[in-house]
Design goal:
The protein is of the alpha/beta class. The protein is built from 13 helices and eight strands. The relative contact order is 0.08. The C terminus is likely disordered.
């Protein structure tokens, strides 16, 4: 039930908040009424033909035995992909997407406990346990369970911008963006419990001081920890390093300012702590495969102050 509800909850919130006219519906090769793994009945399920012409087809999960999809499902995924639809495989939903031949030799992710089986079935796929989702533009896959929320919010962000995704996240009371990947959840000896309160306070402090130089020593001092202890606890709490996390927060703020302010790229670079517009452009292009100027043109939500 959770897997099925995730894309509906996120995408329907776009419509409820009047951020876009997005409509979701359920389809299956067994239309009518279905019974979930939890024993609940759901009726009103459309047949496969109803999915033809959709902008996005989501496989929210898959059977626990990872059985191959029916030929009808494979043909639907192939034909709609060829017609330009984005195909999304959340959690175990990566299996039918891979079985339909839509991933090929590209990278993908699924629930960590199914990595070995997916690798055996499709050895050419480059599986990556270090990420929560992978987006190739035409095909999107996510890691286990709750990572579907991250993937769906990412999809909203990629189509409507960071401000819209943040609005959806606030409405649903979930994080707009999480760092790290599911590698931190794979069964292995657990690290010592980090000082979450100290790390949380530093993270809040950093977001209020993005325009300043923020090296590890300064952050460790704010947490009242040694540098080594701080880095270890930060990684345990977030799944990533302080430097990577700070860079992502600077980029998030840069995107927000590009969308909702009329500030110049030079000013945004300074306000976000990049030091120079050249450095901002380099990091922005590496992260989002576009320039700040083109991003603003696509996602701008305030009129230009110039005539």
């Amino acid at each position: 039930m959770f897997h099925l509800s995730v894309p509906q909850m996120v995408f329907d919130e776009v419509s409820r908040l009047r951020l876009g006219r997005w409509e979701t519906f359920l389809f299956s090769d067994h239309p009518g009424c279905i019974r979930t793994a939890e024993g609940y009945g759901i009726d009103g399920i459309h047949d496969l033909d109803a999915a033809r012409g959709a902008d996005v087809l989501v496989m929210p999960s898959w059977f626990s035995d990872r059985r191959p999809p029916s030929e009808a499902v494979c043909q639907l995924l192939k034909s709609e992909h060829a017609a330009g639809a984005v195909i999304v495989g959340l959690c175990l939903g990566a299996f039918p997407v891979a079985d339909a031949g839509l991933i090929g030799e590209r990278s993908a992710v699924t629930h960590w406990y199914a990595f070995d089986q997916l690798a055996q079935r499709h050895p050419v796929i480059d599986l990556d346990e270090s990420v929560l989702y992978i987006d190739h533009g035409d095909v999107l896959t996510s890691a286990g369970t709750a990572s579907g929320l991250d993937a769906c919010l990412h999809f909203v962000r990629s189509r409507l911008g960071a401000s819209a995704a943040n609005a959806v996240a606030r409405s649903l009371v979930i994080a707009p963006h999480r760092e790290g990947g599911q590698a931190q959840y794979i069964e292995r000896p657990l690290p010592p419990q980090p000082n979450d309160d100290s790390i949380s306070r530093v993270m809040d402090w950093v977001t209020q001081h993005l325009s300043e130089p923020l090296n590890i020593e300064k952050m460790a001092n704010a947490a009242h920890m040694s540098t080594r202890t701080f880095v270890r606890n930060f990684r345990a709490a977030t799944g990533t390093t302080p430097a990577v996390w700070v860079r992502e927060r600077r980029l998030d703020e840069a995107r927000r300012m590009l969308e909702v302010t009329d500030e110049s790229v030079d000013k945004i670079a300074a306000e976000c702590g990049f030091g120079s517009p050249v450095t901002l452009r380099q990091h922005f292009a590496a992260a989002f495969k576009t320039s700040p100027t083109l991003y603003r043109r696509h996602f701008r939500s305030v009129p230009s102050s110039s005539a």
